[in-house]
Specification:
The complex is a heterodimer of chains A (about 450) and B (about 650). With about 450 residues, chain A is an alpha+beta fold. Chain A contains 18 helices and 10 strands. Chain A has a 5-stranded antiparallel beta sheet with strand order 3-2-1-4-5, sandwiched between helices. In chain A, strands 9-8-7-6-10 form a 5-stranded antiparallel beta sheet, with no helix packed on it. The radius of gyration of chain A is 25 Å and the shape is globular. Chain B is globular, with a radius of gyration of 31 Å. The chains are: A alpha+beta (about 450), B mainly alpha (about 650). Chains A and B meet through α13, α15, α16 and α18 of A and α21 and α22 of B.
Chain lengths: ~450, ~650
C-alpha cells in the first residue's frame, strides 16, 4: 500500500510540474494526468480515503512519514506549503475532471489564487478532494509565533498530547497526522535547542490531569533515542509510543493513582493491570499509530531480568524501545513530585537507578543513559562547592558528574563554567529543589522561557 | 492411414513405457524381460511401416514424433521426464534393429540416473556395444539450469565429470559462469556423502585454479557458502574429504568469505562458523586470522547492526554450538571488538519489535475475558499471521495453536486465523523433509481449509507423498477413500510413484494403511507387490485371507514375503505352511513348485514345516527325486546350522 501511495505522490507532483509547463490540451499533460489519476484509483481501490499531510518538511500518510521521498521532492513540498496546503485528502469516487481541476488549482500562479484553496476548490465543483492545513490544536491552524520557542513548542505539544490522550481514552479517532506534526516539532527542536526543552522537562511540577508526565517521558525518550543515533523516523516513533505508555493507567481510578497512603492489594493489582489495559487500548490504533505504542505500553514495567509486570506466559525480553521509555519513565517519575513520595535530588536518583543495574535495567544501558543525561540534568539548579549557585546547561558524556554550568548567583559572578576543567577545584555540592531552596533563584535564570510554564508560585 | 499411424505411435509409446518398467525390475538377461522386449519389437516394427527412421525429440514434459507433440497424457509425460533426466535430447531408431540392440538400449535407459551417468550416459554405454540402428542425441547442460529436484544433482555430478574428463574448456568455463545457479541445488551433505560428486567438483575446481584464478576463487567461495549454510554435524572422516575441496584457497579467500557470511547472510550461525573454521583447518588458523584482521570492515560497519555484534559475541563465547572457536580466531575477533561496548551497538530492530508484538498478542489473549477485546486481539493475531508463516516460527506457532485450543469457547472469533493456520499447514506438509514441528502442528488441525481435490492434486499430480499429507487427507476426507483408490489405479504403470507411496506407508502410521497396501498390491507389478508385502510388516497383525491367497499364487518372491508376514504369529505360520505343502499329486510341475516352496522355508528357516520336509525327504518315487533331494538338503542345512 505504502509503495502505491508513494507512486501516486510522485505522479501527482509530476502532473503538477507538467501542468506548469504545458497547456491542458497538450498530450503530455493528458498523459501525466492519466498516470496520476490511475495511480490514485489504485490506492482508492483499497481504501475510502487517502489523506496526505505535510509534517514539518516531510510528506506523511497515516503513521508513515516518507523521509526519503520528501528529500527528493523538497521544492514541491515548499511550493505546496507556500500555497497554504499542508493536507490533501482524496475520497473514493473522485472524478478525473475533479482531479484535473485540483492540479490546475495547484499549478495556477500564486497571485491568481487569492481565496482559501479549499474555498476555491469547492467553487470549482470539486467535492471529492479537500485541501487545508494540518491541525495542531483544536482551535485552528498553527500559530507560528507560538511554536518558535521551546516553551511554546512544549505548551503547544502538551495541549495536543492532552487532546490525543483524551481521544484515545474516549476511544475516538486520533488525528495522528497532527499528533505526528506536534511530536515532529519537538523532535526537530531537540536537535537545535535541546537544552531548553530538557530544562522544561526537568523543572516543573507534574500533574496527571495535564498529561505532562507523558510528554516529558516522550521528550526524554526521543532525546535518548536520538543520542543513541537512531534514525529520525525511529525517534519519532519512540516519541509517539512514549506518549501513550501510561494510557492504561488513566483508565484506572484517579483515586488509586493519586493516592497518598499505601495501596491495598486489590488496588495494587489494578494499578499493575494498566500495562495490559494500555496495550489493548493501543491495539485499536495500530493502523494509524503503528505497533510500537502497543509494545511499549505492555513492556514498560518489565524489567531486564523479566521480573516486574505484567506476568507473561510467553516471556520475551523487552524491546529496546520499551527499555528506553522505561528508563525515562523511571527517571521522570523519580524526578517529579508526586503525592506518594518526596522529591529526590538527581544524585540520589542516579544512585537509586544504578542499584537496578542487572535487575531492572541492562547494566551498560544505565551507564549509557547517564552518559547522555548526566547525573545533574540540564536545567538543574545546583549549589557549587564554592557556595555559588548555577544552572546546568550541558553534559559531558565522558564525565557525567561534571557538566557545564551557568553561574546565576552571586549575580556579579555570572558566567559559564565547564566543571570538567575544574575537576579538583570545583564541583557540584548539591541540588537545589526549585520548589524549595532553589525557588528563590528561579528569578535569576536568563531567557525567562521557564517562566512561561508551570513554575512553583 | 494417419489414424493408423497415430495408433501405431501410441502403441509404440505405451509399449515403451511397459518395457522400460520391466527393464528397471529385471536384469537384462531375465527371460521375462527378454520376452517383453520381443513384444515391444513387434510394435517398433509395426511403426517402421509408417516412420523410418523413427525420430523422437524430447522436452522435459513432452515428446515430439512425426511433426506432432505427444503430451498431457501420463504415459507421454513420464517417458519424456524419464528421458530428460537421463540427458536424452533425441532418439533415432532405424529399421533392422534387433532384439539384442533393444535389450541393451532399454536396459541402459532404465538404469537409475546416477548409475547411468556414472557409466558415461546412454551414449557412453551404447558406444561399448554394437548398436548400428540407434542414434542418440544428448542434452546440453544448460537445459538443466532450470530444473530442480533431487535427481538433477546426479546429472550435475556427471556433467562436471564429463567436462573434466574431456578437458572441455568451453564447457568448464560455462559451468564456472553459471556456477552459483548450479551449486545452489546442493546441500553440504551431498558432498560429504557422494564421493563421485566430491571428486568431480574437486577436479573442476583444480582445473579452474590452474586455468583461471578469478573463477576458481568465485566457484570455491560459492561452494564454501553451501557449507556455511549447513546445519548438520559433519563427522571427522567426511570432513577430511570436504576439506580437500578447498585446500587451494588462500587465507585471504577464507577471510573474505568469513566476513561476507557474517555481514550478509542472516541464517549463518555459530554452528556454521565452526564448520567453516574446521574446513579452513587448524594449521592455517593463524594466517587466516591475520587476514581476517586485515580485511575486517570498519567499526561502524561491524556495530551498525546488532545481529552482527550478537553473532560475533556468540562466536567468541561458543553459544549455540558445542565447540568454542579456537583461541587464534577468538583473539582476533576480540581485538577487533575491543572497546566496542553495548552503547555503540544499540540498534532499533524492527524484526525484533514485531516479534515482541506478536508475543504480546499471545500474552494478552490468554488472559483476556472481555469478548470485545478478545475480538480485537484475534483480528490482530490474524493480521500478524503472515509474518509468522513467512518466518516459519514454529515455537510461536505452537504457542498460538495451544492458546487457540484453550479459547475454544470463542472459536467464532478466531475462525479467520484458524483458517490461515490450516491453509499454511496444509500447503507446507508436502516436502520430504517436513520439519517435525510442522508435522506435529499439522496433527493438531481439526478442520481443513482445502477440498479433497487439493489433496488429490498434491498426491497424484504433483506427486508429493508424505505421511503428514496422507494422515490429514484421511482425517478430513475419509469418505473419499474410494476416490483415492481410483486415482491410485490411474498410476498402475507408474512404478516410481507406487514405490514412493509404498515407501511412505511402510515408515509411517497412516490410517487405511492395510487397505492401501492391499489395493496397490492388487494392480501393480511384482516388484511393487514385493515392496507392498514388505511394508505390511509395519502393520500390527496379518490379514490371513489376503496372505493365504498370495501363497496360493504363482510368484515365489511374493510367497516368500507372504509367509514371512504370516510367520509373525505361530498359528498363521502353520496354516501358511499347510497351504504351501498341501499339494496332493506330486507329479510334474508340482514337483517344481514343491522345490520352490522348500527353498522358501529353508531360506526363512520355518521350522513349522519340518513335518512336511521330513515327509518329502522320504518320498520313495523316482519322479520325486528332485523334491526328495531338496528336502534332504534343507534338513542337512538346518542340522548343520543347529550344530
Amino acid at each position: 500500500m505504502l509503495e502505491r501511495i508513494e507512486v501516486f505522490i510522485r505522479n501527482l507532483l509530476a502532473s503538477l510540474q507538467t501542468a506548469k509547463l504545458y497547456a491542458t490540451s497538450h498530450p503530455i499533460f493528458a498523459k501525466s494526468i492519466d498516470k496520476a489519476y490511475e495511480s490514485l484509483q489504485e490506492v482508492l481501490g483499497e481504501r475510502e480515503e487517502l489523506a496526505i499531510g505535510i509534517v514539518g518538511d516531510e510528506l506523511a500518510f497515516e503513521k508513515e512519514i516518507f523521509f526519503d521521498l520528501s528529500k527528493q521532492v523538497k521544492p514541491a513540498i515548499a511550493y505546496l506549503k507556500s500555497r497554504g496546503i499542508e493536507r490533501m485528502a482524496f475520497y473514493l469516487g473522485v472524478e478525473k475532471e475533479e482531479f484535473v481541476q485540483f492540479i490546475l488549482l495547484l499549478a495556477a500562479p500564486k497571485e491568481e489564487v487569492t481565496a482559501d484553496p479549499q474555498e476555491k476548490l469547492s467553487a470549482m465543483g470539486v467535492k471529492n478532494i479537500t485541501v487545508g492545513k494540518v491541525r495542531v490544536s483544536p482551535g485552528g491552524p498553527v500559530q507560528e509565533k507560538e511554536t518558535k520557542t521551546a516553551a511554546g513548542i512544549y505548551a503547544s505539544s502538551s495541549q495536543h498530547v492532552s487532546d490525543s490522550v483524551r481521544g484515545v481514552l474516549n476511544l475516538e479517532a486520533v488525528d495522528h497526522l497532527a499528533l505526528r506534526f506536534s511530536i515532529n516539532n519537538v523532535m526537530e527542536n531537540l536537535t537545535t535547542d535541546y537544552q531548553e526543552l530538557l530544562k522544561l522537562t526537568t523543572v516543573k511540577q507534574h500533574d496527571v490531569e495535564t498529561f505532562t508526565h507523558l510528554l516529558d517521558v516522550a521528550i526524554l525518550s526521543m532525546y535518548l533515542a536520538s543520542k543513541l543515533g537512531f534514525a529520525k523516523e525511529v525517534v519519532l516513533d519512540i516519541g509517539i509510543a512514549a506518549l501513550f505508555h501510561d494510557i492504561g493507567k488513566l483508565y484506572i481510578s484517579r483515586k488509586v493513582v493519586g493516592k497518598t497512603q499505601g495501596l491495598t492489594s486489590e488496588e495494587f493489582a489494578l494499578i499493575k493491570s494498566h500495562t495490559v489495559l494500555g496495550a489493548e487500548l493501543m491495539l485499536t490504533y495500530v493502523d494509524s499509530l503503528g505497533i510500537l505504542p502497543v509494545v511499549v505500553a505492555f513492556e514498560h514495567h518489565l524489567k531486564y531480568d523479566l521480573s516486574g509486570y505484567p506476568k507473561m506466559r510467553f516471556p520475551k525480553k523487552p524491546h529496546l524501545a520499551s527499555m528506553i521509555v522505561s528508563i525515562c519513565d523511571v527517571y521522570d517519575a523519580l524526578s517529579e513530585r508526586r503525592g506518594y513520595k518526596m522529591d529526590y535530588p538527581p544524585d540520589l536518583i542516579y544512585k537509586i537507578m544504578s542499584r537496578e543495574k542487572g535487575t531492572g535495567f541492562e547494566p551498560s544501558f544505565v551507564d549509557r543513559f547517564f552518559q547522555i543525561m548526566g547525573v545533574w540534568p540540564i536545567g538543574s539548579i545546583v549549589a557549587l562547592s564554592d557556595a555559588r549557585v548555577a544552572i546546568v546547561t550541558d553534559e559531558h558524556e565522558d564525565d557525567i558528574f561534571a557538566p557545564k554550568v551557568n553561574v546565576i548567583f552571586p549575580e556579579d559572578t555570572r558566567g559559564v563554567i565547564d566543571l570538567r576543567e575544574h575537576r579538583s577545584a570545583l564541583k557540584i555540592e548539591r541540588f537545589l529543589n526549585p520548589w524549595k531552596e532553589g525557588k528563590e533563584f528561579l528569578r535569576l535564570i536568563n531567557g525567562s522561557e521557564l517562566k512561561k510554564i508551570d513554575f512553583p508560585k | 492411414m494417419d489414424t493408423n499411424k497415430d495408433e501405431a505411435i501410441n502403441d509404440f509409446l505405451k509399449g515403451l513405457r511397459i518395457v522400460l518398467s520391466n527393464a528397471s525390475a529385471y536384469p537384462k538377461d531375465h527371460p521375462y524381460f527378454v520376452k517383453s522386449v520381443e513384444a515391444f519389437k513387434v510394435k517398433v516394427d509395426a511403426l517402421f511401416a509408417f516412420l523410418n527412421p523413427l525420430q523422437i525429440s524430447v522436452s522435459p514434459d513432452s515428446l515430439f514424433i512425426d511433426g506432432r507433440k505427444w503430451e498431457k497424457q501420463l504415459v507421454y509425460t513420464e517417458l519424456a521426464q524419464n528421458f530428460h533426466m537421463r540427458k536424452v535430447k533425441g532418439i533415432e531408431l532405424t529399421q533392422g534393429i534387433g532384439i539384442d540392440e533393444l535389450v541393451e538400449f532399454l536396459s541402459s535407459l532404465a538404469l537409475p540416473v546416477r548409475e547411468l551417468l556414472r557409466r558415461g550416459g546412454i551414449q557412453g554405454i551404447l558406444k561399448e556395444v554394437r548398436s548400428p540402428h540407434i542414434v542418440m542425441e544428448e542434452l546440453d547442460y544448460s537445459q538443466f539450469l532450470r530444473d530442480e529436484g533431487e535427481e538433477t544433482k546426479d546429472v550435475w555430478a556427471y556433467l562436471f565429470k564429463e567436462a573434466i574428463d574431456k578437458r572441455d574448456s568451453r564447457k568448464i568455463n560455462e559451468f564456472a559462469d553459471n556456477f552459483d545457479k548450479i551449486i545452489k541445488k546442493f546441500k553440504a551433505k551431498d558432498f560429504s556423502e557422494n564421493e563421485e560428486l566430491r571428486d568431480s567438483l574437486y577436479s573442476f575446481l583444480s582445473y579452474l585454479r590452474v586455468t583461471n584464478k578469478e573463477k576458481f576463487c568465485r566457484c570455491a567461495g560459492e561452494t564454501l557458502k553451501i557449507f556455511l549454510k549447513n546445519k548438520e554435524a559433519i563427522y571427522d572422516e567426511k570432513l577430511d574429504k570436504i576439506k580437500s575441496l578447498f585446500q587451494d584457497l588462500n587465507n585471504d579467500d577464507f577471510a573474505g568469505m568469513f566476513w561476507d557470511g557474517l555481514l550478509t547472510d542472516e541464517s549463518v550461525d555459530n554452528l556454521n562458523f565452526n564448520l567453516f573454521f574446521q574446513i579452513a583447518g587448524q594449521e592455517r588458523s593463524k594466517g587466516i586470522a591475520d587476514s581476517m584482521a586485515a580485511k575486517a570492515p570498519g567499526r561502524d560497519v561491524l556495530t551498525r547492526t546488532p545481529r552482527v555484534v550478537k553473532k560475533i559475541q556468540e562466536l567468541m563465547s561458543g553459544a549455540g554450538s558445542n565447540q568454542v572457536v579456537s583461541d587464534v580466531y577468538r583473539n582476533t575477533l576480540a581485538s577487533l571488538f575491543k572497546g566496542i561496548t553495548f552503547n555503540e551497538t544499540l540498534s532499533f530492530d524492527r524484526a525484533l519489535l514485531y516479534d515482541n508484538y506478536r508475543h504480546i498478542l499471545l500474552n494478552l489473549v490468554v488472559q483476556e475475558k472481555h469478548k470485545k477485546r478478545v475480538s480485537v486481539i484475534a483480528d490482530k493475531l490474524a493480521e500478524a499471521w503472515g509474518v509468522t508463516a513467512k518466518e516459519n516460527g514454529f515455537a510461536y506457532m505452537q504457542s498460538l495453536v495451544e492458546v487457540l485450543k484453550e479459547r475454544k469457547a470463542d472459536a467464532e472469533l478466531f475462525e479467520g486465523l484458524q483458517k490461515q493456520i490450516a491453509s499454511f499447514l496444509e500447503n507446507n506438509i508436502w516436502e520430504k523433509e517436513t520439519a517435525p514441528q510442522l508435522a506435529a502442528l499439522a496433527e493438531t488441525l481439526e478442520k481443513s481449509s482445502q477440498s479433497a481435490d487439493f489433496y488429490f492434486n498434491k498426491i497424484f499430480n504433483e506427486k508429493k507423498i508424505t505421511p503428514e499429507g496422507l494422515r490429514l487427507f484421511f482425517r478430513f476426507f475419509p469418505q473419499q477413500l474410494n476416490q483415492l483408490y481410483s486415482y491410485l489405479e490411474t498410476k498402475r504403470t507408474d512404478m516410481e510413484f507406487l514405490l514412493e507411496m509404498v515407501g511412505v506407508l511402510k515408515d509411517a502410521e497412516v490410517p487405511f494403511k492395510k487397505e492401501l497396501l492391499e489395493r496397490i498390491f492388487s494392480f501393480s507389478n511384482e516388484m511393487v507387490k514385493v515392496e507392498a508385502l514388505k511394508a505390511m510388516h509395519s502393520l500390527p497383525g496379518s490379514d490371513e485371507g489376503f496372505l493365504f491367497s498370495v501363497l496360493q499364487g504363482e510368484s515365489t518372491p511374493l510367497k516368500k514375503e507372504a509367509l514371512l508376514l504370516l510367520c509373525r504369529e505361530k498359528q498363521s505360520c502353520s496354516k501358511g505352511v499347510d497351504i504351501l505343502f498341501a499339494i496332493k499329486s506330486h507329479f510334474g510341475v508340482k514337483n517344481k513348485i514343491l522345490v520352490e516352496h522348500l527353498s522358501i522355508i529353508e531360506e526363512l528357516r520355518i521350522k513349522d514345516a519340518e513335518f512336511y520336509v521330513n515327509a518329502l525327504s522320504n518320498k520313495p518315487f523316482f519322479w520325486n527325486k528332485n523334491v526328495r533331494d531338496k528336502a534332504q538338503e534343507v534338513l542337512r542345512n538346518w542340522h548343520a546350522r543347529k550344530n
